[in-house]
């Protein structure tokens, strides 16, 4: 079985999306489903989950019952077999069925007692209300949603303009409430979102033009679904592949435009583990080689003048392996084995002319904003640093500042790793 390829940077959404989205746009951020409190947990991965990541796969399996774990694999975000030109080739296929078999085998290799594909995709939408598929779901102790196109999850598992649950989604929601683990990677993490789930877009165009409800033929335009996804995690917006694709800019713009004051910006091959989602005891742990950026807009203010958008006083925290976060109190809890970093470098922060890793820059590098932030944390030569977008007309400048409350931590005694409450301002000219 071929390893499913990494999700395309610009996702092509299902046909007919625009009408459905705009029908719900008048409701703005309203969500008819009441918030539900969960005894279970979420394991949300920012995409590109490697086969060898025993830490994250092991965490999902442990939460599903360890050696007794039974994992239901949902890959409805993939194209169905009917749309895969390589459906008959096990080495090249990338459709819902073969991706489901791939993940089921992988979970079993990592120690689950059983893992089964749940037969759902856009060619088999009726299965989402099938009693036999519901019975299959009921026999599982955990679930994994694969990557692809998150809107296919909307069209497969939600019903009508009100986005009511299909029978299968209602069963999964009930299992979560009774203690099951629900996990997902890339689109499978994004679909856990509440209202205003991002549907596409790039950082520069998002900062320049703003966001709008719907899906757009221009994949660079920042769009969102007002009614959101499944609503498993509502304490902040979710974005994925964040540093790898330079999505911090679009995440800040979308949050500001839609009135959200927090974003969980997930990095690749790394999980945000959420205990007791939807309660005042919601608590999070980061697992993996990269991290999770928490973007805090509580004190931020946006301004638009002569068509140029700016944002002041947002905060950027970057949490790494085994750091924790209390969502109710907005408190990062750095792992005790990490030491507070005392900056010793005297060199200035290197110039950065592509802070959001533009697709237009063939020489761009991923994790660009994080690189500048860590370099600033490590030097005592300056208390602020600037970085700019690759694009001009306007060119956006990002200013990072070691303001009051900022702290950096190191796990190896050398470089900065975890960052807490770095101020971030965005201006245009």
From TrEMBL:
UniProt cross-references to CDD domains, sorted A to Z: GAT1_cyanophycinase
EC id: 3.4.15.6
Top EC category: hydrolase
Highest taxon of source: Bacteria
Signal sequence interval, chain numbering: 1-30
Amino-acid biosynthesis as UniProt keyword: no
Listed InterPro entries: Class_I_gatase-like, Peptidase_S51
Gene Ontology molecular functions: carboxypeptidase activity; peptidyl-dipeptidase activity
Keyword field: Carboxypeptidase, Hydrolase, Protease, Serine protease, Signal
Residue intervals passing through the bilayer: none
Family of the protein in this entry: Belongs to the peptidase S51 family.
Protein name: Cyanophycinase
Gene source species: Streptomyces lavendulocolor
């Amino acid at each position: 079985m071929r390893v499913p390829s990494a999700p395309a940077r610009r996702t092509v959404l299902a046909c007919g999306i625009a009408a459905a989205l705009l029908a719900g746009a008048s409701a703005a951020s309203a969500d008819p489903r009441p918030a539900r409190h969960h005894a279970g947990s979420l394991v949300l991965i920012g995409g590109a989950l490697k086969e060898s990541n025993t830490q994250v796969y092991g965490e999902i399996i442990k939460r599903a019952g360890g050696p007794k774990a039974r994992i239901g694999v949902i890959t409805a975000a993939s194209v169905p077999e009917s749309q895969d030109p390589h459906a008959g080739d096990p080495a090249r296929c990338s459709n819902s069925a073969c991706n489901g078999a791939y993940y089921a085998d992988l979970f079993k290799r990592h120690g689950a007692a059983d893992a089964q594909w749940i037969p759902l995709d856009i060619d088999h939408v009726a299965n989402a209300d099938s009693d036999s598929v519901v019975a299959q779901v009921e026999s599982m102790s955990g679930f994994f949603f694969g990557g692809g196109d998150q809107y296919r999850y909307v069209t497969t598992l939600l019903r009508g303009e009100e986005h009511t649950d299909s029978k299968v989604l209602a069963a999964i929601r009930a299992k979560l409430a009774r203690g099951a683990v629900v996990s997902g990677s890339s689109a499978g993490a994004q679909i856990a979102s509440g209202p205003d789930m991002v549907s596409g877009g790039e950082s520069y165009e998002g900062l320049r033009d703003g966001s709008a409800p719907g899906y757009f033929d221009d994949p660079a335009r920042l769009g969102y679904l007002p009614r959101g996804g499944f609503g498993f995690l509502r304490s902040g917006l979710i974005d994925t592949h964040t540093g790898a694709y330079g999505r911090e800019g679009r995440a800040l713009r979308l949050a500001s435009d839609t009135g959200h004051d927090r974003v969980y910006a997930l990095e690749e091959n790394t999980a945000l583990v959420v205990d007791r989602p939807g309660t005042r005891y919601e608590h999070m742990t980061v697992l993996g080689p990269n991290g999770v950026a928490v973007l805090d807009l509580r004190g931020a203010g946006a301004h638009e003048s002569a068509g140029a958008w700016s944002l002041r006083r947002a905060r950027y925290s970057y949490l790494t392996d085994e750091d924790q976060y209390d969502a109710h109190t907005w408190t990062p809890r750095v792992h005790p084995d990490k030491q507070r970093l005392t900056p010793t470098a005297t060199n200035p922060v290197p110039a950065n002319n592509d802070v959001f890793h533009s697709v237009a820059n063939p020489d761009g590098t991923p994790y660009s904003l994080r690189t500048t932030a860590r370099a600033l944390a490590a030097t005592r030569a300056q208390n602020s640093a600037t970085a700019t977008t690759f694009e001009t007309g306007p060119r956006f400048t990002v200013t990072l500042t070691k303001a009051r409350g900022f702290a950096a931590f190191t796990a190896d005694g050398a470089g900065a790793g975890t960052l807490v409450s770095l101020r971030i301002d965005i201006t245009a000219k």
